[in-house]
Amino acid sequence: MLPVAGRLLAVTVAPVAALAVALVSSLSRCSLLEPEDRVVSVLSPYFGTKTRYEDANPGLLPDPEVPRRDPELLEETCTPVQLVALIRHGTRYPTAKQIRKLRQLHGLLQARAPDEGTRAAGGRDLGAALADWPLWYADWMDGQLVEKGRQDMRQLALRLASLFPALFSRENYGRLQLVTSSKHRCVDSGAAFLQGLWQYYHPGLPPPDVSDMECGPPRINDKLMRFFDHCEKFLTQVERNSTALYHVEAFKTGPEMQNILKKVAAVLQVPVNNLNADLIQVAFFTCSFDLAIKGVKSPWCDVFDIDDAKVLEYLNDLKQYWKRGYGYTINSRSSCILFQDIFQHLDKAVEQKQSSQPVSSPVILQFGHAETLLPLLSLMGYFKDKEPLTAYNYKEQMHRKFRSGHIVPYASNLIFVLYHCKNAKTPKEEFQVQMLLNEKVLPLAHSQETVSLYDDLKNHYKDILQSCQISEDCELPKVNTSDEL
């Protein structure tokens, strides 16, 4: 068993009424959309954390109820007895901060002097096209889940239920555990996932009010799903530290970004001094938002080519690396409370099976953020490059493992599946585990095997599981302020 520390977490149960509103709102606006032909862009693989799930997982089949099964998944002799899924929210609107920067850029385009020579020659003035392109984003959107994000969640629910029908059986529905971050996009993602399960159980029937659903509303638990907000060492040394993202700022003023800055200024016919790396990045992300939210390839996509996109992807990855990944130890260490929680669920399921009891929580669904998943994957040793990502080794990192868009696109998911194997030769072999990242079997970081004995997996991560004392790990070093000589 794991140490008692961190076992009992303060869980704030959201008022049923508030979550009911979120679910009813989600349901009232949705139609269970059939997959449509996707609008694609050559830039799509490079949008980092703004990447569409289907661009990071192109093997998805059109029918979510007949999902593609990874051939590495265990079957026949071993039965899945528990699934713990950590799920990033679905596609969302830009944040209010991003919208303000886009509005600033749009204002620059509208105020510029058009190139009469280009127009007289009948050429295309991309700056004019963008100035005329409707700016439909509004401050109220501020990172909220969009209809495409609800569809992401409904279809993920259908695929997981179809892949693991015994775990997602109608009998188990009342025993589902849903935990979510307090952010609306996560609460709404949980509601949309439940709606997808309702469609799986009751095809064609309208879903009931959340208060009438057997599994009840999701529980809000930010200590688990937004652990970074509760870690003072991370907040002080990284989040609020102006020098923590040195490499991000240095890359913005480095030769790769400066070349893009000059090129974009020429294309848009605006003074280069009026632009900066942040505005260039928001223009790039606007291409991604238009694609993801509306399925539209806007003129913003025409501003950049693939070489530009690779540089801008690296800028985004630098931020994720230094703020959420391997850049600082506390980034990943702050997630150990969530890692412990996952293994406490698995431990309990093993104990119940060994005692011939039914598993009380066969499915645990936890809805969070890219900032929830990346630190956890780093803690587990995944996607670690031999050399750190820096402002000065862009070319050397062209084939890096740490590419956030391939790891944590919208609706990304890290899944632990615990199996009970009846014909095991030894008691140790009776319980086995597989992990899936974005519905594909994730080989173990330390062995590259696709399945592990549960005891072996726990033993590999023993030091993390046993040493995690989040109050101590996140405590700032005490400073001696005495005047003693």
Please explain how this structure is put together.
Keywords: Cell membrane, Disulfide bond, Glycoprotein, Hydrolase, Membrane, Signal. Residues 1-18 form the signal peptide. Its EC number is 3.1.3.62, 3.1.3.80. Pfam families: His_Phos_2. The chain is an alpha/beta fold. The chain is 42% helix and 9% strand. The chain has 20 helices and eight strands. The protein has helices spanning 16-29, 53-56, 96-111, 116-120, 126-132, 147-163, 184-201, 222-225, 232-239, 246-252, 255-268, 277-294, 306-323, 329-333, 336-354, 370-379, 404-407, 454-460, 462-467, 470-473, and strands spanning 78-88, 177-180, 219-220, 363-368, 413-421, 431-437, 440-441, 452-453. Strand 2, helix 7 (184-201) and strand 3 (219-220) form a beta-alpha-beta unit.
Distance N to C terminus: 48 Å
Please give the largest β-sheet.
Answer: 8 strands, mixed
Shape: globular
**What is the percentage of strand-forming residues?**
5-15%
What structural category arises from helix and sheet content?
alpha/beta
| Number of strand segments | 8
Quaternary organisation: single chain
Helix percent band: 40-55%
Low-confidence stretches: 1-36, 116-123
Question: If you compute it from the alpha carbons, what radius of gyration comes out, rounded to the nearest whole angstrom?
Answer: 24 Å
The tally of helices reads 20
Mean pLDDT: 88
What's the SSE pattern? HHEHHHHEHEHHHHHHHHEHHEEEEHHH
Protein name: Multiple inositol polyphosphate phosphatase 1
EC number: 3.1.3.62, 3.1.3.80
Family: Belongs to the histidine acid phosphatase family. MINPP1 subfamily.
Disulfide bonds: 78-421, 287-301
